[in-house]
């Protein structure tokens, strides 16, 4: 079983990710809704009724609800089915709009993308994907402020960012997740640190050593504060900073421990002298890295294109094996 598969269900992909993976399933569900019959829907779709029944059963098991009520006269949406099928219809409408935007990409030459991001993705993932995108669209420019997740959401809502890529982004009605990928915390320390040979680590092991932590604006710090609160203790900080680079340099030269999410724990070119070790799942030290936009806002063509590019890259990280226990 992959490490990502052990994450709690609440860190599974958001509906935006479901949409990207299951567009064919939508077609099946809408055919059943339209015909009121699994057999007739299967005939229309040119698949076996038993295969269609299995796909429907898989979706219902994933959701935990029956989507259709069965009777001798056929099937009709259940109350839960009405809700879910309404969502499917809205996603189809959004998909049609996206296809129109994608058609506009054929002529995409110039544009500007504004993406507010967590520092965890700033040293490796984001510059790599911007470079790859600009290799295809060299005249697209970027504005990438590095902020905590609350500030990232505010930038979406005040119109100063098209997209956010933030760890621990709290759900808000105004924010539409496009993709969510579960991330564990990793303890980052010097290679000669007493804990460097142990994996996985418990947080209680780490807190016995000096800590260098990000400020409370960042999701990793909030996870650690929540852990300390559950234990009725306080974290003893040797250093607090809003600079992840400073934290890494500090623990390289001190017998201290810092924490970052696995996707950015040891960015390329910054790992010399450091190790990153996953925190044991029993400490609930994990959360979502979320790509999102403002709900109800049509993205500029360049931003929509980069959102799709970045979503594919992030989705590919689900099956990427961890390197040196970090995923980086």
Protein architecture, described:
Keywords: DNA-binding, Transcription, Transcription regulation. Belongs to the LysR transcriptional regulatory family. This is DNA-binding transcriptional regulator, LysR family. One of its GO terms (cellular component) is cytosol. It is built from eleven helices and eleven strands. With 328 residues, it is α/β, with parallel strands linked by helices. It has three domains: 10-105, Arc Repressor Mutant, subunit A (Orthogonal Bundle), CATH 1.10.10; 110-181 and 287-319, Periplasmic binding protein-like II (D-Maltodextrin-Binding Protein, domain 2, 3-Layer(aba) Sandwich); 182-286, D-Maltodextrin-Binding Protein, domain 2 (3-Layer(aba) Sandwich).
Using brief descriptors, characterize the structure shown:
alpha/beta, Arc Repressor Mutant, subunit A, D-Maltodextrin-Binding Protein, domain 2, 3 domains, seven-stranded mixed beta sheet, 11 helices, globular, disordered N terminus, disordered C terminus, LysR_HTH_N, DNA-binding transcriptional regulator, LysR family, DNA binding, transcription, WH-like_DNA-bd_sf
């Amino acid at each position: 079983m992959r490490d990502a598969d052990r994450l709690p269900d609440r860190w599974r992909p958001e509906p935006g990710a479901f949409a990207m993976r299951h567009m064919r399933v939508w077609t099946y569900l809408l055919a059943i809704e339209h015909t009121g019959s699994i057999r007739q829907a299967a005939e229309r779709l040119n698949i076996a009724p038993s295969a269609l029944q299995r796909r429907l059963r898989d979706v219902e098991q994933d959701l935990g609800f029956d989507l259709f009520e069965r009777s001798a006269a056929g099937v009709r949406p259940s109350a839960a089915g009405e809700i879910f099928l309404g969502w499917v219809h809205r996603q189809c409408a959004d998909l049609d709009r996206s296809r129109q935007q994608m058609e506009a990409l054929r002529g995409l030459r110039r544009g500007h993308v504004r993406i507010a991001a967590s520092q965890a993705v700033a040293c490796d993932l984001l510059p790599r994907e911007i470079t790859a995108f600009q290799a295809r669209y060299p005249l697209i420019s970027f504005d990438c402020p590095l902020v905590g997740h609350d500030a990232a959401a505010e930038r979406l809502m005040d119109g100063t960012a098209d997209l956010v890529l933030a760890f621990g982004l709290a759900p808000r009605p105004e924010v539409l997740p496009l993709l969510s990928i579960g991330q564990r915390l990793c303890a980052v320390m010097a290679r000669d640190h007493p804990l460097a040979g142990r994996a996985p680590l418990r947080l209680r092991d780490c807190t016995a050593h000096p800590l260098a932590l990000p400020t409370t604006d960042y999701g990793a710090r909030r996870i650690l504060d929540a852990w300390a609160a559950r234990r009725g203790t306080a974290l003893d900080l040797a250093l607090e900073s809003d600079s992840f680079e400073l934290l890494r340099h500090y623990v390289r030269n001190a017998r201290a421990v810092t924490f970052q999410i696995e996707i950015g724990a040891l960015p390329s070119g910054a790992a010399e002298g450091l190790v990153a070790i996953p925190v044991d799942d029993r400490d609930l030290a994990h959360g979502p890295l979320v790509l999102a936009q403002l709900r109800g806002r049509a993205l500029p063509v360049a931003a929509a294109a980069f959102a799709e590019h970045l979503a594919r890259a992030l989705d590919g990280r689900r099956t990427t094996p961890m390197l040196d226990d970090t995923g980086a």
